Amino acid sequence: MPDEPDLDAGDFSEWLAGMQAAIRGEGESDVPCGSCTACCRSSHFVHIEPDETRALARIPAELQFPAPRLPAGNVLLGYDEHGHCPMLTDAGCSIYEDRPRTCRTYDCRLFAAAGVTLDEDDKAEIAQRVARWRFRYPTAADRERQTAVLAAAAHLWAHGEPGPDYVIPVSPTNVAVRAVELYEQFLEEPERG
After folding, report:
1. How many domains does the chain contain in total?
2. Please, which of 9, 17, 59, 97 could form a disulfide with 133 given CB 3.0 to 4.6 Å?
3. pLDDT digits (tens, 9 = 90+) for 88-112
4. DSSP code of 185?
5. Does residue 111 come out as left (phi exceeding 0), alpha (psi in the -120 to 50 range) or beta?
6. What local confidence, expressed as pLDDT, does residue 192 receive?
7. What distance in Å separates the CA atoms of residue 123 and residue 129, rounded to the nearest whole number?
8. Phi, psi at residue 93, to the nearest 5°?
C-alpha cells in the first residue's frame, strides 16, 4: 500500500536488545501492533511447548497437532481454511492473556531489521507492514548493529549456517532470527590508529 504512512519501529539498538531477550526466552516482544492482526491471518503454524499449560488449556485439543521432529508434548496450532488462527475473533485474540510463547515473542520488525523479504502470498499483509517500519538511529552504534544484522542475513542466505553443518535455514523467519542471534560476528572491527 503505497499511501500507508511509515511506522516508528523504535531505536534500533533498544529494539535489538529486546528482540534478543525474547529469542532467548527472557521476555516478550513489545510490538506496537495497534489494530494489526496480519500475523494472526497469515497461515502460521504456532508452536506450543509442553510447559505452556495456560495456552494449552485454552486451546481445544482438536486444534492441537503433534509438532514434527520435536519431542512428545510439543504441539502446533494450525489455521483455518482462510489462513486465520482459529483463536482469532472479530474482537481480537480470544486467548490473548494466555496466548502461546510463539505469539508473545513474534515481532514482524525482525524482517525489516534483517532486510528479509516475505514473498509467500499468504504473508502479503505482513510484508506490507514490514515495508512500513522505520528504525531510528540515535547513535553510530545503532547503524553499525543494523549493518551487522543485514550482513549476517546476507551471509546466511548465501552460505548457510556458520559451522560444521552449513545447513541453509529453510525459511525467511529462520534467517531473520539467526541474523539477530549472530550479528555480533559481523560487526566491523574499529580501525586502530
Report:
1. 1
2. 9
3. 999 999 999 999 999 999 999 999 9
4. G
5. alpha
6. 43
7. 10
8. -70, 125
